[in-house]
């Protein structure tokens, strides 16, 4: 279904590899879209069919009943959408409004045969089959069948994909669903069941827009290989949720040109829909406003974006990464926003710590918001702070209104998951100290520092040009599994109540040798070989005579002969003027107490060089993750920028009276209970 004719035409115009890659995914329906451009009703354009791998077709543009319509009566807006020209309707069990979707269909008066209706499987009840669940949906929808039935999220069915998909094949065979597919699936999810499937999923519905374009490339290539059509939700998110990004000027320029060319008002959001159309992506959009329904139908007849505009959008989107819809939300029963336990709350949530500040810097700033929020603090305590300056000392005092702590520090250099406990949640923080954690780290070869990272002083240089990717991958094996590791002396590990780094910096003799500890490296892989193609450089800071003396004194407690030498090779240093030293990225899953800096330090030695950490990201701590969730129970983290904005100005409250940062915390928090923060 992929149009080679369109590909060669664009290649001839631009000669650009990026555009060729884009056009390789253009489906065969696009030439038909162009034939409709002159003198064809826009409703026909909106309902231009895309052929599925089972022979059925799906209209290109769909109206969804999620997002703003979650749990709400959607009957009127669904009927209005159909009357405006939509024939593709996208619902789901978890949206909590299948009954009103069915009522809207009936109210529209549109024949069932002219509509394409989707619903999605949520979480099965114990003992319930897929067929029984679908029959319940059909009863609510007042339909005999749906045109498309999807597994809404893989998170409910890890390890069960083969059995669940077999049941999906049965409902298709029985005619209860004309086509079957999935939603929010990754390549590894497909690989678990596709080899045993007799029916290949027709659709994978995913969040798709330019800000996930680069990250989704491998998945879309997999779709293409297996004839799976990509369907998007959240396609206009860059306009509504990521304003101020690199896409803004590119979208604005395209919107201006298209408005002039068509004589219609084309917005940046409309441009994003057109971008999806030209990539062969089925687009699902939604609104609660009837006027906007007609805009969407009208825009379906707009001219195409130029190849240059397509390329510019791809390139601008690839500069940033913003995923706005989290599969974790699908793990919960969707409920009205007011349905929280009694306030104030106790619980746990994750923050995405930035590189630079200490973990305590982050916690202390977050406390200012937490300690002044009705989400976590008794109303009577908040009353005591009334009348005090919002941004002044009075507000800082409020940070002590509720007990708050963190479950494992990150070095200032490091970024990533930082787990925060509030109220009774602080009693659970110990669970995060010894749990397994996942990291990504960049190692820069040729230079060793006292702290084993780029924050420290340079103490040794060594050749690096002889180190190849193969040599590093071969050396990784000795670090996998259970190993004995000596923590670095420049670490926060305490000996007799004092951090090791204090002994080293103050010249206090260590009372005894630093004990090796048994740690487990569950997995360790090299995921990116940067070579010299990067901007990292060795630290300028040198190991001073005073620092050497202090370190020697601290080591004298365990070895009177200890000497600290500065082994810098002038020839090695000079070589860095011609090319950057080799860098590579490691991904690892480790037990609690493992020092990633020590792994990098020892690995560099193992390949006959020196090395230190220049970036370190904690991507997972127990069930708190950065990026997509991978298993049931995973929770995503709140970006620190959300707190930073609130510290300057909390902004407008939503309809339930919550600020942006509070809503983000509610969405991602493991709520233990309410009215428990005094204990």
From TrEMBL:
What's the domain of life for this entry?
A: Eukaryota
Q: Which Gene Ontology molecular-function terms are recorded?
A: oxidoreductase activity, acting on NAD(P)H as acceptor; oxidoreductase activity, acting on the CH-OH group of donors, NAD or NADP as acceptor; RNA binding; tRNA pseudouridine(55) synthase activity
Q: Which GO terms describe its cellular component?
A: nucleus
| Claim: Calcium is one of the keywords in the record | no
Renumbered to this chain, the Basic residues biased-composition regions fall at 388-398
Q: Which PROSITE patterns match?
A: ALDOKETO_REDUCTASE_2
Q: One of this protein's Pfam families, by short name?
A: TruB_N
Domain named NADP-dependent oxidoreductase: residues: 66-316
Keyword annotations for this protein? Answer: Isomerase, Oxidoreductase, tRNA processing
Q: What Gene Ontology biological process does one annotation of this record name?
A: mRNA pseudouridine synthesis
Name the Enzyme Commission number(s) assigned to this protein. Answer: 5.4.99.25
- What is the catalytic activity of this protein? a uridine in mRNA = a pseudouridine in mRNA
Top EC class for this record: isomerase
What CDD domains would the database entry show?
A: AKR_AKR3C2-3
Query: Pseudouridine synthase II N-terminal domain: from which residue to which, for each copy?
Result: 401-533
So what family is this one in? Belongs to the pseudouridine synthase TruB family.
Which HAMAP family would you find in this protein's record? TruB_bact (MF_01080)
Which PANTHER family does its entry note? PSEUDOURIDYLATE SYNTHASE TRUB1, TRNA-PSEUDOURIDINE SYNTHASE
Q: What is this protein called?
A: tRNA pseudouridine(55) synthase
To which species is this protein native?
Dentipellis fragilis
Lineage of the species this protein comes from: Eukaryota, Fungi, Dikarya, Basidiomycota, Agaricomycotina
């Amino acid at each position: 279904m992929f149009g080679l004719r369109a590909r060669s035409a664009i290649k001839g115009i631009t000669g650009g590899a990026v555009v060729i890659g884009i056009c390789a995914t253009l489906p065969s329906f696009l030439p038909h879209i162009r034939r409709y451009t002159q003198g064809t009703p826009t409703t026909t354009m909106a309902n231009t069919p895309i052929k599925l791998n089972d022979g059925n077709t799906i209209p290109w543009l769909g109206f969804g009943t999620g997002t703003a319509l979650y749990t709400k009566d959607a009957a009127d807006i669904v009927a209005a959408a159909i009357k405006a020209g939509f024939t593709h309707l996208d619902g789901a069990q978890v949206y909590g409004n299948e009954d009103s979707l069915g009522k809207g269909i009936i109210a529209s008066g549109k024949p069932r045969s002219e509509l394409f209706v989707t619903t999605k499987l949520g979480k099965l009840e114990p003992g319930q089959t897929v067929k029984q669940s679908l029959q319940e949906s059909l009863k609510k929808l007042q339909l005999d069948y749906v045109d498309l039935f999807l597994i809404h999220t893989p998170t409910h069915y890890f390890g069960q994909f083969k059995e669940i998909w077999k049941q999906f094949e049965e409902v298709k065979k029985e005619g209860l669903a004309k086509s079957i597919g999935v939603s929010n699936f990754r390549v590894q999810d497909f690989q678990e069941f596709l080899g045993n499937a007799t029916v290949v999923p027709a659709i994978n519905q995913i969040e798709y827009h330019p800000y996930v374009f680069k990250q989704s490339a491998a998945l879309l290539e997999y779709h293409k290989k297996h004839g799976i059509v990509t369907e998007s939700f959240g396609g206009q998110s860059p306009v509504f949720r990521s304003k101020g990004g690199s896409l803004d000027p590119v979208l604005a320029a395209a919107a201006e040109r298209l408005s002039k060319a068509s004589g219609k008002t084309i917005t940046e959001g409309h441009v994003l829909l057109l971008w999806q159309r030209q990539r062969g992506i089925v687009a699902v959009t939604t609104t609660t406003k009837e006027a906007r329904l007609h805009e969407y139908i009208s825009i379906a007849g707009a001219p195409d974006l130029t190849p240059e505009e397509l390329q510019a959008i791809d390139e601008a989107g690839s500069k940033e990464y913003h995923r706005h819809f989290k599969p974790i939300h699908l793990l919960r029963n969707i409920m009205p926003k007011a349905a929280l336990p009694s306030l104030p709350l106790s619980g746990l949530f994750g923050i995405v710590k930035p590189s630079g500040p200490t973990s305590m810097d982050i916690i202390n700033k977050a406390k200012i918001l937490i300690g002044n929020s009705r989400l976590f603090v008794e109303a009577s305590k908040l009353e005591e702070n009334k009348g005090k300056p919002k941004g002044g000392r009075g507000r800082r005092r409020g940070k002590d209104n509720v007990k708050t702590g963190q479950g494992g520090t990150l070095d200032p250099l490091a970024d990533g998951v930082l787990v925060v406990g509030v109220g009774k949640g602080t009693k659970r923080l110990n669970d995060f100290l010894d749990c397994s954690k996942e990291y990504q780290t960049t190692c820069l070869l040729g230079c060793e520092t006292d702290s084993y990272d780029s924050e420290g002083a340079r103490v040794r240089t060594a050749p690096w040009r002889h180190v190849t990717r193969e040599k590093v991958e071969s050396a990784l094996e000795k670090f996998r599994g259970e190993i004995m590791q000596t923590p670095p002396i420049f670490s926060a590990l305490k000996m007799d109540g004092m951090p090791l780094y204090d002994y080293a910096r103050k010249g206090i003799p260590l009372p005894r040798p630093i004990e090796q500890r048994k740690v487990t490296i569950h997995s360790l892989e090299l995921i990116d070989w940067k070579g010299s193609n990067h901007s990292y450089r060795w630290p300028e800071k040198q190991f001073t005579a005073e620092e050497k003396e202090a370190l020697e004194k601290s080591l004298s407690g365990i070895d009177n002969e200890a000497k600290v030498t500065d082994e810098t090779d002038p020839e090695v240093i000079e070589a860095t003027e011609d090319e950057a030293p080799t860098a590579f990225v490691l991904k690892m899953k480790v037990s609690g107490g493992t020092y990633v800096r020590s792994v990098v330090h020892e690995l560099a030695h193992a390949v006959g060089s020196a090395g230190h950490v220049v970036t370190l990201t904690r991507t997972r701590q127990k069930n708190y993750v950065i990026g997509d969730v991978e298993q049931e129970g995973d929770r995503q983290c709140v970006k620190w920028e959300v707190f930073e904005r609130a510290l300057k100005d909390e902004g407008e409250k939503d309809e339930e009276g919550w600020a942006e940062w509070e809503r983000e915390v509610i969405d991602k928090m493991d709520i233990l209970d309410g009215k428990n923060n005094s204990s």
